[in-house]
Every structure is written in structure tokens, then in C-alpha cells.
Amino acid sequence: MKGLLSVLGLLSGVALLYAWGPPGPAEAAWTSADEEAVREAVLDYVEGVYEVAPERIDRSVHPSLHKLGFLRRPDGSWGTAPMDFEQLRALAGQWNADGHVGDDGLKEVTVLDVLDQTASAKLVAEWGVDYFHLARVDGRWQILNVLWQTPPADG
């Protein structure tokens, strides 16, 4: 009897949640304009580094950026590389100053998800693979978090 009451209680709770309305699909908030704006923010990030244009970082990255990278060492082990906004901006100002990455530099952007205020995306670039969390801040999509690694061992 106690088990039956527990199951009925659980079902009542679920029914109450759905009485407020079932959750809508995440895609309902996904518009092509938002998807393009997220893509543009990621392109500002990568092209800001490739083109030695830190002003593009200013446009696309939130000042409270948290970035963490995983780099493969020569011995095959992994090290980490944290970075904040100012460090990223400085990097963008010098990483490709010698032009080692030309106009055809690798930059494959995939928008993974877009909601009302948050989005996620993936970038495959010359230095590896980046995963992004973005937020709509004052009506503009900005990068808040980046998790990246150097190219995978198999690719």
C-alpha cells in the first residue's frame, strides 16, 4: 500500500507540472536571425585571431570570458591553458602576426543550439576544436565560455 501511495504521489506531481503546460521544444526560440548572429560572433572570434584584429574580440566576447584549453604535450600528456578576456585580446593582437594562417585558414562553425538567451556552438580552427557558450547581452550575442583542445590525436 505504501508503494502504491508513493507511485500515486509521483504521478500527481508530474500531472501538476503538466497542468502548467508541457515544456515546449527548445527549437521554438531558434530563429535564423539568431543562428546567424551566433555564427557571426564565433566568426568574429576566429577571424579576430587570424586577421590580427583584437577589435573583433571586443565585439564578440564578453569581458567576463572564461576560457580553458587542453594542449597535447610532446610526450603525449595533456596540459591546461586558462585564459581571460584580456589574454585573449592580447593573443588576437599577435598570434598570426607573421601570417602563418592565410585567408583560407580552417574555420568550420557549427551552431549547436539557440534558445532565447543562451546558445552553444562549435568551431574547428587551425589550433584545434573550441566549444562555446554564448548569451544574448543587451540584444547582442556574446561568447562567455570557451572550452577547447588541440587537434585530436586521430585528426
What global shape is seen? globular
Domains, number: 1
- Please give the radius of gyration in angstroms: 21 Å
CATH class: Alpha Beta
Number of helices: 4
The SSE string, one letter per element, is: HHHEEHEEEE
Q: Quick one: biggest sheet?
A: 6 strands, mixed
Percent range of helical residues: 25-40%
Low-confidence stretches: 4-24
E-strand count: 6
Distance between the termini: 58 Å
| Proportion of strand residues | 25-35%
Residue-averaged pLDDT = 85
Coarse structural class:
alpha+beta
Biggest sheet strand line-up: 2-1-6-5-4-3
CATH architecture descriptor? Roll
CATH topology: Nuclear Transport Factor 2, Chain: A
Organism: Gaopeijia maritima
Protein name: Nuclear transport factor 2 family protein
InterPro entries: FrzH/put_lumazine-bd (IPR039437), NTF2-like_dom_sf (IPR032710)
Protein model, in words:
This is Nuclear transport factor 2 family protein. With 155 residues, this protein is of the alpha+beta class. It has a single domain (27-149), classed as Nuclear Transport Factor 2, Chain: A (Roll), CATH 3.10.450.50. The chain has helices at 2-19, 32-50, 54-60, 85-92, and strands spanning 61-72, 78-83, 107-114, 118-125, 128-137, 140-149. A hairpin with a 2-residue loop joins strand 5 and strand 6. The protein starts with a helix and ends in a 6-residue tail after the last strand.
Characterize this entry briefly:
The chain has 4 helices and 6 strands, in the order αααββαββββ.
Helix and strand arrangement:
Elements: H1 2-19, H2 32-50, H3 54-60, E1 61-72, E2 78-83, H4 85-92, E3 107-114, E4 118-125, E5 128-137, E6 140-149
Helix pairs in contact: 2-3, 3-4
